[in-house]
TrEMBL record:
Gene3D superfamilies: 3.30.1120.10, Alkaline Phosphatase, subunit A. Keywords: Membrane, Transmembrane, Transmembrane helix. The keyword Acyltransferase does not apply. The chain crosses the membrane at residues 20-47, 67-92, 104-125, 155-176, 197-217. It comes from Melittangium boletus DSM 14713. This is Sulfatase. It comes from the Bacteria. Residues 229-564 form the Sulfatase N-terminal domain.
Length: 711
């Protein structure tokens, strides 16, 4: 107390180092508390809504080391973030002349929580599907938070977080300059004025102008006339051609792909063999039916994964093309299967990776920061709920830049996942087609379940499902648009064969057909894919072809267009003659398009196909985790059973034949796809001769396998 005036002296501000130390303690407490809260609330291991207590026990029993290592990584990340947030708030507190350790500690705690909240809200607005599992079904108030934030602009929250971070060094610098200006004495910081800001703002402005000019300057020369063409395949998992607006779909889902339809040619029907990603891509690229190539199903073992066989990529590499494949979540097969690409940039997928992924997704406060630490959390790429094509755009630009360094042409396959379940389109496409006020269980997408749902989906639920899928189509279309702009900017668009493709279609709860792909062969929805080709002057513009293209015809067609001989092992035929500009389109004979189902993951999901199949257990009993690699594969003792149990069939002309092995013998179905394009009316009883002929043809085409004798 001042003896003369009787006033208390002003409190002494804490030294700089003590302010930072106590603020960092507050930040650590904030982020470690968030980690503990998320860990306690999300103990059950699940995958896309499928949870199983036996699986959780198995994980802890057999993969305890992986669990503990992931816990250590998560705690380390929270510790680093807590220190960073505490440092930010500490700088701000020192700049404001903080007094008292308790105030600094509480300021570090509160400021860190505020920063975590703003960053999290920005990511929720950008990728709401990523938080659906932990927020939407948790409670009424978390559900409302997710619904409310998902409709906001991510940039708003991120700007507030950035301002909070930037304010700290500004305040600290302000005080530091004030102290230096008075010989180290504590004075009130001087206000910033226009004169002081003019010079740095001018430097920033000039730098921004120069950066803009550099970015706008296209230094890539246009390829000389007559140089060998490039190949660019843009694909999305589960992309249905009937959901493209250029094919008559009522929603405007694909303006950029529609442009390619006008500028190029496309096949009205392109049929894949097995509607699952791994075997389908192998058939598309090898021009061999599954059974001729070794990738018979999704969960093949190490011997099949180690095999080598000719593909589109190997043929192009041998002819001098540089080849690469880029993918996100659904494209892990490119890192696991021998498809022949020189450069592969695709996520890994094995059981330890799955454990790390599922543990990470429960950490709501950490998720927004993982994009800043991609090397520390590579499992982020494997999130089914995070299928934003934007990272693919960035990696594609890098690939194109790498290709520019050589004179060889390139063949680039980019495979997106945004149209794969759970149909998690990012902002600004998310929610674009949803009904106002949608709050049902499928508001943020849906995934096939291993066990039957408590109640069948309502019409409004199916409408939300389709709306989310269509938003994914729109997001992929925007990616296609960005890629075409990049190709034009680099002067590559006119000398590149651009192809739009997919590995299979998708069932979207059409009557009796369920959700997903691979379980059955009813209807065309999961069996048809887009096959669009654009190459000015080499491929006819605006041509729609009625010839039924098969999966094994894709690679030979592309090779002939590029002037490369097809390997002798290819079984498909080239359709390039139908794509030549001008003149009449030559007619081609109809050839059979073979069909098969993949492994059934569940034996109790309540879907219709369960009534017409040879039984075997669900994946918790039929799959194994390989020691060492952690890869998930089918147990060898189940290979023969899975092979015999497959549903099989073919398209030929106007007919579609299906054979469904059952304990009572094969069930045979026949559909007239010309008179009944939705394949709703089974007519085998009225056409026994057609059935007999088609079964005999199916047996001949599948000569590598043995079929049950016709009844």
């Amino acid at each position: 107390m001042n003896k003369l005036s009787g006033e208390m002296p002003p409190p002494t501000p804490l030294p700089f180092t003590r302010v930072l130390a106590w603020a960092c303690r507050g930040g650590l407490c904030a982020f470690l508390g968030l980690y503990s809260l998320c860990a306690v609330l999300n103990m059950q291991l699940g995958y896309q809504g499928n949870e199983n207590s036996e699986l959780t026990s198995l994980v802890w029993r057999e993969f305890r080391r992986d669990v503990l290592l992931q816990v250590a990584r998560l705690i380390t990340a929270h510790t680093v973030l807590g220190m960073f947030a505490g440092l930010v708030t500490g700088l701000a507190a020192w700049g404001l002349g903080a007094t008292g350790r308790a105030r600094v500690f509480l300021g570090g705690l509160g400021g860190s929580l505020l920063l975590a909240l703003l960053v999290c809200l920005g990511d929720i607005a950008q990728h709401p599907h990523l938080y659906a599992a932990t927020l939407y079904a948790r409670s009424a108030w978390t559900k409302q938070v997710l619904l409310s934030i998902s409709q906001t602009e991510p940039a708003t929250w991120r700007t507030l977080a950035a301002l909070l971070v930037l304010a700290a060094p500004v305040l600290a610098s302000w005080r530091w300059r004030a102290r230096r200006g008075t010989g180290g004495e504590r004075t009130r910081p001087r206000a910033l004025n226009g004169t002081g800001l003019a010079r740095p703002l001018g430097v920033v402005l000039v730098g921004a102008i120069l950066a803009g000019l550099l970015l706008a300057w296209n230094t890539t020369p246009t390829p000389p006339p007559g140089s060998r063409p490039n190949l660019l395949i843009l694909a999305s998992d589960g992309l249905r051609p009937d959901h493209l607006s250029g094919n008559g779909y009522p929603r405007r889902t694909s303006p950029h792909i529609d442009r390619l339809l006008r500028e190029g040619s496309h096949f009205e029907q392109t049929i894949i063999q097995i509607p699952r990603t791994g075997p389908s891509w192998t058939t598309l690229l090898s021009s061999q039916w599954a059974g001729q190539h070794p990738i018979r199903h999704t969960m093949v073992g190490p011997e099949a994964r180690a095999s080598r066989f000719p593909t589109l990529a190997t043929a192009l590499r041998e002819a001098g093309w540089r080849t690469a494949v880029l993918s996100d979540y659904a494209g892990d097969i490119f890192s696991r299967l021998p498809l022949g690409f020189e450069h592969v940039e695709a996520p890994a997928f094995n059981f330890p990776e799955l454990i790390r992924q599922r543990m990470l997704i429960t950490q709501v406060a950490l998720l927004p920061w993982t994009a800043l630490l991609p090397s520390f959390f590579p499992e982020r790429q494997q999130f089914p709920e995070l299928t934003d094509p934007s990272p693919l755009s960035a990696s594609s630009r890098r690939a194109l830049e790498d290709f520019r360094e050589g004179e060889a042409p390139f063949a680039l396959l980019v495979f997106a996942s945004v149209t794969h379940f759970p149909y998690a389109a990012p902002h600004p496409y998310e929610g674009r087609f949803l009904a106002p006020g949608e709050r049902g269980p499928w508001r943020f997408g849906a995934t096939p379940q291993m066990e039957p749902p408590p109640a069948p989906p309502r019409p409004e639920d199916v409408a939300a499902l389709v709306a989310n899928y269509d938003a994914g189509v729109l997001a992929f279309d925007a990616f296609v648009g960005r890629m075409m702009e990049e190709m034009e900017r680099r002067g590559l668009a006119d000398n590149t064969l651009v192809v739009i493709l997919s590995d299979h279609g998708e069932h979207l709860e059409e009557r009796d057909r369920g959700l997903g792909h691979g379980e059955h062969l009813w209807g065309p929805e999961a069996l048809r894919v887009p096959f669009i080709l654009r190459w000015p002057g080499k491929v006819a513009a605006g041509r729609e072809l009625t010839t039924r293209a098969r999966a094994i015809d894709v690679a030979p067609t592309l090779l002939e267009l590029l002037g490369v001989p097809a390997p002798a092992s290819f079984q498909g035929r080239s359709l390039a003659s139908q794509l030549v500009p001008g003149g009449a389109v030559p007619e081609l004979d109809e050839l059979p398009a073979l069909l098969e189902t993949d492994i059934w993951f569940s034996d109790r999901d309540g879907q219709r196909y369960q009534r017409f199949r040879l039984p075997y257990p669900w994946l918790y009993e039929t799959l194994t985790v390989e020691k060492g690699s952690g890869d998930i594969s089918l147990k060898p003792e189940w290979e023969e059973t899975v092979e015999k149990a497959r549903h099989r069939g073919l398209y030929l002309g106007r007919w579609k034949l299906l054979e469904l092995p059952t304990p009572e013998g094969p069930r045979v179905e026949l559909y007239d796809v010309h008179a009944d394009p939705e394949e709703r009316h089974e007519i085998s009883a009225a056409n026994p001769e057609v059935v007999a002929d088609l079964r005999a043809r199916l047996h001949r085409e599948r000569s590598w396998a043995v079929l049950p004798a016709p009844r």
